[in-house]
Write a structure and sequence with these properties.
heterodimer, A: about 55 residues, alpha+beta, 2 strands, B: alpha+beta, Nucleotidyltransferase, domain 5, Substrate Binding Domain Of DNAk, Chain A, domain 1, about 30% helix, globular, disordered C terminus, ATPase_NBD (chain B), stress response (chain B), Heat shock protein-like protein 70 (chain B)
């Protein structure tokens, strides 16, 4: 969409809302992507930290 | 360090342990999963044990004993493991050794020694013997002693059942590294292929077995799987299809031989009829006609007959419809629409039946891919999926310490918030009513997650507003105007009768997005003509979001974020 006239925000970014609450579910502990996720979660790493290793 | 438990010494395989059949698989040097054939050349090994003069037979040899030695033959015992006698259904065992109550568990009375004395053997001992044989077959094939395995179990297998299976396997010298769910193993078997691409999709796994059928609806998100709903049916399976053929051939036999009597009324005749009917059913999955022939079926009379596939499909149409109903029911249970399903994976022996695949394909929209040998050239063998998935998982974790595996599979790790709604970008117009929502992160995606996409901007370039919103999927039903009919209620789906499916053809159902909640706005100024914009969304584990917007090929960009919804905040702000 085209930027409306007179739209302004700090650093051109405006947060309006928040995510709706999520539902807690079980991930199946299977597959390479899960194992990577488990590793990140156990070592409390983020995606970018994980990429660096 | 003991030799057996050290991860370096581990030789792990994948085992799919079923009521009717079991399979074993390993991963070859190149990381490809392969199902191992036992010494009889079978990849699908019947889960049957039989004793003749103290000698133990398993697999196909034991299955043949169902005719002459049914009382000392144990079959269909997997679901009895770790169960209370009162809670089991002994129906499948009518033609073999009957289960009896023994202390708190289930046992069988069989003559398993050379002396011919009747012994009471618990179901867990039977399982141990079965797993030991599977282990030996795999060890012979691989040339090294197998001592660990990943075993597949149904999604409704209780902890007590898992515990009993762990113990039975341990007694057979097999360390259970992990139990994985059968439908998830099937998805993994497909996703682990070299040509497979990890995508965000909803997969329905229909595991059609011998004496039970299970359907699971799985959200596959970036290679991670969450089960949304499951449905189990113990009344439809391969046995019902066998029954259809048994009744058909029995009636033919009676018509032809007036003096022969009903082969279903004599135990031995019935066993012969059943074995041959199963063979005919398998032949009909491959060819368009099959031969039925049994020597001395009843009263010493031989019987030969043929049946073609069309006839068989007609006879079994009710059962085929039940499979479709079960799949639709599971989708409904997950509060989804058939339109949301992008793939149906057919697993289990009964899934070889071409008609079941085509019935599912017509019950689901054209956009849904049915992965079965008859509908997709890239489909894998449905009987092998669970064992393959288990083998892949085994190769992934066999180097791990047991403690590592325990910690990784702990609920602390597996229970994760999943997004309730899709997060995406509003295109075309800033007004939610006329804009088009394009999802970046699908609903039911576990967090943390990072997704990015490239979107087109207005042709003339200039200043652009990027609006990030939450969207809800809706089913838009448009009906051709001339025939006004009462709107179809979603609840009626499970009693999908013929009128219903006719109605469905008249209306056009499609997926549409409704913008629920605007999350953020970002401005990109002075874009070139026809520029594309890259949007990246990063949802953290606490549901706070960072996003980053920039012109493709351009410098800079806009970065911003917002916090998590209130009650999950930990008070640090």
């Amino acid at each position: 969409p085209v930027l409306p006239e007179g739209w302004a925000a700090e650093k051109d970014f405006k947060a309006v809302g928040q995510l709706t609450h999520a539902t807690d579910r079980n991930i199946e502990p299977v597959g390479p992507h899960f194992l990577a996720h488990a590793r990140r979660k156990r070592h409390k790493r983020t995606f970018s930290e994980d990429d660096r290793i | 360090m003991s030799e057996e438990e050290s991860p370096a010494q581990r030789v792990a395989i994948g085992i799919s342990f079923g009521n009717s059949y079991s399979s074993i698989a390993h991963t070859s040097g190149e990381g490809k999963a392969e199902v191992i054939a036992n010494e009889e050349g079978d990849r699908q090994i019947p889960s049957i044990l039989s004793y003749v003069d103290g000698e133990e037979f398993q697999g196909t040899q034991a299955k043949a004993q169902l005719v002459r030695n049914s009382k000392n033959t144990v079959a269909y015992f997997r679901d009895f493991l770790g169960q209370d006698f009162k809670s089991i259904d002994p129906t499948p065992c009518h033609q073999s050794a009957h289960p009896i109550q023994h202390d708190s568990t289930v046992a069988f009375k069989i003559k398993d020694t050379a002396e011919g004395a009747e012994n009471t053997v618990t179901v867990s001992e039977i399982t141990t013997r079965h797993i030991r044989r599977l282990k030996n077959s795999a060890s012979d094939f691989m040339g090294k002693t197998v001592n660990a395995a990943v075993i597949t179990v149904p999604t409704n297998f209780s902890d007590a059942q898992k515990e009993a299976l762990t113990k039975a396997a341990k007694d057979a010298g097999v360390e259970v590294l992990q139990f994985i769910h059968e439908p998830v193993a099937a998805v993994l078997a497909y996703d682990a292929r070299a040509e497979a691409e990890v995508a965000d999709k909803i997969v329905v796994v229909a595991d059609l077995g011998g004496i039970r059928s299970d359907v699971a609806v799985i959200a596959s998100r970036g290679g991670m799987y969450s089960i949304l709903a499951t449905a189990h049916d113990y009344d439809v399976g391969g046995t019902q299809l066998d029954q259809v053929l048994m009744d058909h051939f029995a009636k033919e036999f009676i018509k032809k031989h007036k003096s022969g009597g009903d082969p279903r009324e004599n135990d031995r005749s019935l066993a012969k009829l059943k074995l041959e009917s199963e063979a005919v059913k398998k032949a009909l999955s491959l060819g368009s006609s099959a031969n039925f022939s049994v020597e001395s079926l009843s009263n010493g009379l031989d019987f030969t007959s043929t049946i073609n596939r069309t006839r068989y499909e007609l006879l079994a149409s009710k059962i085929f419809a039940a499979f479709t109903r079960l799949a639709l029911h599971a989708v409904e249970k997950a509060q989804l629409d058939p339109l949301d399903v992008s793939e149906i994976i057919l697993a289990g022996g009964t899934a070889h039946t071409p008609r079941i695949a085509s019935a599912l394909q017509s019950a689901f929209p054209e956009s849904t891919t049915v992965l079965a040998p008859s509908t997709s050239p890239t489909a894998l063998n449905p009987s092998e999926l669970a064992a393959r998935g288990a083998a892949i998982q085994a190769s992934l974790i066999q180097e791990f310490e047991a403690e590592d595996i325990d910690q990784s599979t702990h609920p602390m790790v597996t229970v994760t918030p999943h997004l309730a709604h899709a997060v995406g970008v509003l295109c075309i117009s800033g007004d939610p009513a006329s804009g088009v929502f394009r999802p970046l992160v699908e609903a039911e995606t576990p967090v943390p997650v990072r997704r990015s996409a490239v979107i087109a901007t207005p042709r003339e370039g200039g200043d652009v507003l990027i609006k990030i919103c939450e969207g809800v999927r809706e089913i838009k039903v448009t009906k051709p105007a001339p025939k006004p009919k009462p709107a179809k209620d979603e609840d009626e789906d499970d009693e999908d009768d013929e009128d219903d499916s006719e109605e469905e053809e008249e209306e056009i159902r499609e997926k549409a997005w409704r913008v629920e909640n605007v999350l953020a706005e970002a401005a990109l100024k002075g874009l070139k003509k026809g520029a594309k914009v890259e949007v990246q969304v990063n949802v953290a584990a606490d549901l706070s979001v960072q996003c980053f917007v920039r012109e493709v090929g351009g410098k800079g960009g806009v970065r911003g974020g917002w916090s998590a919804p209130k009650p999950v905040e930990n008070g640090s702000i």
